Amino acid sequence: MRRRHWTHCLWAALALLLALAPRAHALDWEHWYVVELAGQRAGWMVERQTTLGGRITSQSESELRISRGGTALVLTMSSQFVETVAGEPISMRTVQRYGQEPMILEAEFDGDTVIERTTQGETARERRLPAAEKGWLTPAAAQRRLAELLRSGATRFSHRTLDPLAGLTPIEIEGTREQELADGATRWRLRVSILPGQEEIVDFNADGTSLASTTSMLGMELIYRLSDRATAQAQNGSAPELLVSSLIHPDRPIARPRSLRRAVYRLSLPEDTLPQLPSDGAQQVERAADGSVRVHVTASADRDPAGRTAATESSATTSTPIDRQLLLRATPYLDFQAEAVQAALATTALPASATAAQRAELLRRRVHRLMTRKDLATGFATASEAATARAGDCTEHAVLLSALLRADGIPARVVSGLLYVDRFAGERQVFGYHLWSQGWIDGRWIDLDAMTATPFDATHIALATSPLDNQEDFVAISASLLPLMGALRVEVVELRHAGEKNEP
Q1: 475-489 tens-digit pLDDT
Q2: What are the residue ranges spanned by the domains of the chain?
Q3: Distance between CA 301 and CA 10 in Å, rounded?
Q4: The pTM is what?
C-alpha cells in the first residue's frame, strides 16, 4: 500500500500535510484525483503503476495551489519507486519544488546498503547508508497485501512500507474498518507513524481502489476524490488561504514584544496531550498533570566591548550531548559549500578577536540585511537559493543563518515554533508559526532569529528542532506541527521586560 503525502511549513514553510490513501491493487493503471481544501479546489494528484521486464514501477505526481497571506504559491512533487515483481527494492526517486530549483533525491538499493544522491542545480551530494532492517513492504507489495485483506473481509491491518517522499525510513500504517458502503465499498480509518495524531478516512471500492479520502488540517477538511484527468487538472476559482487559519490568538496581548526578556506561557490542546517540547536554549518546559505544559522563555543579551548587542543566550548551560559532526556538515538544505553562501560569509566582517557568540550575532545581522525582500513567495528554499535570491520568509532566513554558522565552525540547527507579532496578514496580536536558528556555543544552545531586526526575544516558543540533515528530518519537523495547528492554545502567564519585575 502506498500513502502519498507532502510536507512544508505554513508561514515557516514546514507545516502542511498532503496525504494520499492507498490506491488500486491492479498492475498497469492510472488514477487521477481532485484535491479540495476547505471546500475549495486546491490541486490534483495522479498515481500510475506499470510492469515491464520483471519490474514494477510506481509513480506519483501532484500539484498544490494555496495562498499564504494573499501570496499565491504552487508546490509540485513527483516520486518513483522501482521494485521486482517479488517485492525486492531496486531504486527510488523524488523531485520536489519548494524553492527556485527542484530538489532531486535518488536512492539505489544495494544489498545491506543504500546509495543516496541529492541534487539541486549544480550542488550534489552522494553517500552510502545502511539499508533499513527487513520486515517492510515495497509500495506495490503493500498494495497487493491491502487488496488481499479487503477481499478476505479483514477488519484491521498493520504493516511497514517505504514511501519515497518520506525518505529511507519505513513508516508504519494501521487501518481499521469503519463501515460497509454501497456496491461493496468499505470505509477505513488510517493512521501513519510519522503523522502522530492525524487520521484519514478512506473509502475503498471492492477491488481496492480509493474512491475518496478525508483528513483534517487547521480545522479544515483536505479531501481527495477519484476523478478523470480533465476534471482533476481543471483550475476553478482562487486558491484556499491557509496562513490566516494557522495564526493563534493568545488569551491576552503582549506589549512591546521585541523587548520582552522573560515570559511564561501555558500551552494546551483541547482534547489531547501535548507532545514533548524542546527544553533547552532559551526555553525550559514543565509538564502538568492535565497534559498542558508551562513554557519558560528567558532571553538575556550580553554586550561586547564595543557596546554592540551580542548573541542572545539562555540563563544556564546544558549538559545535553551533541553530535558535532552531524551539526557541522553541509546538507541539501544547509548547503554552505555553495558559492553564494561562501560569498555571504566572506563579506561578513568577523573580527579575529570576536568570540563565537559575537560572530554568531554578526552573522545573524548579516542575514537580516542580506535578505532585502521579506515575502511569502517561496515554499522552502535552500541556503544557497536564499543567498542568491536574497528573498524569503523566516524559513529562508533560518536555513541561511544555520548554514553560515556551520560554515564558520559553529554547530547549528533550526527550530520550528511560534513568534508573537502585533500585526500580520490582516490579524492583530497573534502567534504565527515560525522558524529560527540555534548555534551551539560555550556548551549551550544560543537562539538566533535572522528574521527580526532585534536580537532574540521571549515571544519565541520552540515546538521542535532539527539538523535538517535529510528528507526524514524535513518530514519529521513538519509532521510534528500538524497535531498542533488549528488546535493549540496559548495563555500568557507572566511577562517581564528589561528592568521590570514579573507582571502578574
Answers
A1: 888 878 877 888 899
A2: 7-243, 247-317+324-497
A3: 30
A4: 0.83
